[in-house]
Amino acid sequence: MIAIEVGWGTTLAIKTAVVLGIVPLTALILGYVFLLKMMSHMQSRLGPMDPGGFHGWYQLIGDGIKFLQKEDIMPGEADRRVFALAPAIVVLSTFLVFVVIPAGPRIRVASLDSVKMFDGVGVFYALAVSSLSVIGVLMAGWASSNKYALLGALRAAAQLIAYELPLVLAVVGVVIQAGTMSLQGIVHFQQTGSLFGWSGIGFPLILTQFVGFALFMVASQAELTQPPFDMPVAESELVAGYMVEYTGFRFLFFFIGEFGTAFAFAALAATLFLGGWSVPWVHCTAADFLGPAVLFAKVMFVAFLMFWARFTYPRFREDQLQAIAWKWLIPIALANILLTGVLKVAF
Amino acid sequence: MTEFYRQYLAVAVFVLAAFGMVGAMLAVARILRPKVPQDEKYITYESGSDPLPLFGQMNVRYYVYALLFVIFDVEAVFIFPWAVNVEALSWFGLIEMGVFVGVLLLGLAYVWRKGLLKWA
């Protein structure tokens, strides 16, 4: 961006530091804006609106300080090393998704493109690392040696693998249309595309992949174990599922993992279906400056949809959950893929 | 080192950075948090009653889903290379993929018919 020659090592160090800051920050922003404020308004909750006077701005800071003071308790029966490692795996999975998400023509950590431009494995990689968190969840549930935790972890594993498929298959339609798995390539395709010859807003893929977008949103909701898909952490039956024995910062890592991943999935949805960082009529250097803001706006919009569903619907039953994935989402996703393929080849 | 490998080096650095952040935050918390060991705190939580021994056996109803997942996940791996090259492979590739997906859907229909997708 700026004409200072820096080595790739330094650049990488800066990028790593920035993302290290961004991931907890995104978790805080989503937690504050949606979990505390939006939920309070939608469900008439008075508590989170109270501390600090104006709209309860102090609530999240207070929560942070509270977590900092919590004693670190590990159950005596626990498998100590696995118990300690589990939250780190969940955070790691969130971190790795952020590697490929582009925020501008040149703003990304690594596009994972091959030597050819716009030809890489970006989406594929993002979906692969995002499912790493299953391992962390299973580790947490197993190592706690707690019945609630084990049941929660098993439910979570069954849910995460069931909804992994619609999530992956929903993306295939986008890949078919753009002809690449590189996220930069997909954004480029949407930016340079045109609607019946009119290139005003490019060609956001949601126009043709609306089925894919809906599938992606439902599946990511389940992947985040958010209501209406929150059986693994169902507080009224399993207390908190796999997190039940965690305290203080170790518990906070699961929170960061959940909301950081919510942000990452929203960013993926925005990039795949809504054109990502691209802005009409803005190119090159200007796009580097505007890109992050545009992407952030789109991410907040997608996240709004996610949390809207979260605060509105009651929890499904476990058997309904599996039935939705296997009997509805996967056949629909496969039909969408074949239909997209036929249209792509025919036209 | 070529640009291609540098990108994957970034991934490796991120793995280290994630563990580093978790470690650093726990270290900071360690300085600030209290430590008052009491035997009762280390009992496994079971809604207040003394914990019973962990089940010897439990019915894992998810294994059919796990098997199905493996099948469909491998399918997804095969679909992606085709999805990138749909245009080049044209009708030939499309019909091939139609047959492939059709066979797998037949499998899903069989499992469905057998009642394995029901919560038994």
List key phrases describing it.
heterodimer; B: 120 residues; mainly alpha; 3 helices; flat
Summarize the structure.
The complex is a heterodimer of chains A (347) and B (120). Chain A has helices at residues 8-43, 59-69, 80-98, 122-130, 133-143, 147-178, 183-192, 210-223, 235-238, 248-273, 284-312, 318-346.
Query: What is the share of helical residues of chain B?
Result: 55-70%
The best one-word shape of chain B is flat
- The secondary-structure element order of chain B is HHH
The assigned structural class of chain A equals: mainly alpha
Average of the residue pLDDT scores of chain A: 82
Give the CA-CA distance, first to last residue of chain A: 39 Å
- DSSP E strands of chain A, number: 0
Strand content of chain A: under 5%
Assembly state (oligomeric): heterodimer
Low-confidence segments of chain A: none
Task: Tell me about the largest β-sheet of chain A.
Answer: none
Q: Evaluate the radius of gyration of chain A.
A: 21 Å
Describe this structure in words.
The complex is a heterodimer of chains A (347) and B (120). Helices cover 66% and strands 0% of the residues of chain A. Chain A is mainly alpha-helical and 347 residues long. Chain A has one domain (75-346). The radius of gyration of chain A is 21 Å and the shape is globular. The mean pLDDT of chain A is 82. Chain B is mainly alpha-helical. Chain B has helices at 3-32, 63-84, 86-113. In chain B, α2 packs antiparallel against α3. Chain B starts with a helix and ends in a 7-residue tail after the last helix. The model of chain B has no long low-confidence stretch (mean pLDDT 81). Classes of the chains: A mainly alpha (347), B mainly alpha (120). Chains A and B meet through α1, α2, α3, α6 and α10 of A and α1, α2 and α3 of B.
